[in-house]
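User: Please fill in residues for this 346-position structure.
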């Protein structure tokens, strides 16, 4: 689907979100334990001491577990179940993902984004309250596992490659876009006539729209090529317009109400060779098809597993359950005008 966030200013953060989509959409989990160990834990598994206070007073592993469940567990049971579903499917097909493969994939991801590991940890993971271990084990590893599960069924045809070749090297149009939230449709309609008639009005509105990256770029998005988007409406509008013309208002599903202004046409790139680009095109198309197949495959696996959540909050502690129910109720209430909220604790 066409996404205005494919604009060059959005590429790095959106790519990072894409990298994390598997882990955070299907569940955040820790690395799977050895199957035998999981079935036959040591006798002192829960009473094992993890710390002492006053020299001799023990803090047990069980206490640590209950402490973490009470604070984080009621959001994790489903995620743990999802992990086990994927583990089970991979084990049945003898699929494994070694640590070295996880590390290599992370390095490849960061290299493609031109981000060093330190910057990634300090300015992406920490700002999203994630650790490097979580990213490796909750995002990279399950993504690789699911990729191995689906890749045998993914087929790349020449027509797919030619479509991408045309989108990348063929004729394109440069456009700017203004996006409103769906509930702001009336505001967009009120503004539309001025936007259509005045470049100054369009430029001002483009710099004031609600998505910061689009506002910062004045609404400029990457050039649109033929066949470059699954959202064909945007492509059709872009190529139908004349240079300097403003489109009608239209809806981009899941993103809002939009208006597009075509600025200029870009000619096809001379000398581009389909055969020379074939390998690169194949990689892009294959990865896109795998990404699309992963959620479909996981849904099928989950339907087959028929998970039965006996303790949806991860505990039967009545205070934890009552507090979670209160939290859910409060989250559904409308916001009330109040004094500025305090900044979250680090």
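Assistant: Residues filled in for all 346 positions:
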């Amino acid at each position: 689907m066409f996404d205005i966030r494919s604009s060059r200013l959005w590429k790095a953060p959106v790519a990072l979100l894409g990298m994390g989509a598997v882990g955070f959409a299907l569940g955040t989990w820790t690395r799977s334990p050895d199957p035998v160990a999981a079935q036959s834990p040591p006798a002192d598994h829960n009473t094992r001491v993890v710390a002492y206070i006053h020299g001799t007073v023990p803090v047990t592993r069980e206490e640590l577990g209950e402490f973490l469940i009470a604070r984080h567990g009621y959001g994790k049971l489903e995620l743990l179940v999802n992990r086990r579903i994927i583990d089970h499917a991979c084990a049945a097909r003898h699929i494994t993902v070694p640590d070295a493969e996880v590390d290599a994939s992370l390095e490849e991801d960061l290299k493609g984004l031109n981000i060093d590991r330190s910057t990634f940890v300090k300015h992406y993971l920490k700002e999203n309250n994630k650790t490097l271990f979580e990213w490796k084990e909750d995002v990279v590893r399950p993504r690789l596992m699911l990729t191995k599960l689906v890749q045998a069924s993914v087929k790349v045809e020449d027509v797919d490659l030619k479509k991408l070749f045309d989108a990348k090297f063929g004729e394109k149009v440069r456009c700017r876009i203004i996006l409103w939230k769906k509930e702001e449709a009336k505001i967009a309609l009120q503004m539309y006539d001025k936007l259509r008639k005045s470049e100054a009005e369009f430029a001002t509105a483009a710099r004031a729209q609600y998505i910061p990256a689009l506002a910062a770029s004045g609404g400029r998005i990457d050039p649109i090529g033929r066949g470059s988007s699954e959202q064909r409406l945007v492509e059709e509008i872009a190529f139908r317009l004349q240079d300097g013309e403003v489109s009608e208002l239209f809806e981009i599903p899941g993103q809002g109400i939009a208006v597009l202004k075509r600025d200029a046409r870009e000619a096809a790139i001379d000398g581009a060779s389909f055969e020379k680009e074939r390998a690169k095109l194949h990689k892009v198309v294959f990865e896109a098809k795998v990404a699309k197949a992963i959620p479909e495959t996981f849904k099928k696996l989950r339907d087959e597993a028929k998970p039965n959540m006996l303790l949806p909050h991860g505990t039967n502690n009545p205070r934890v359950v009552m507090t979670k129910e209160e939290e859910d109720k409060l989250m559904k209430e409308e916001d009330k005008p109040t004094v500025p909220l305090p900044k979250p604790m680090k």
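For context: The radius of gyration is 25 Å.
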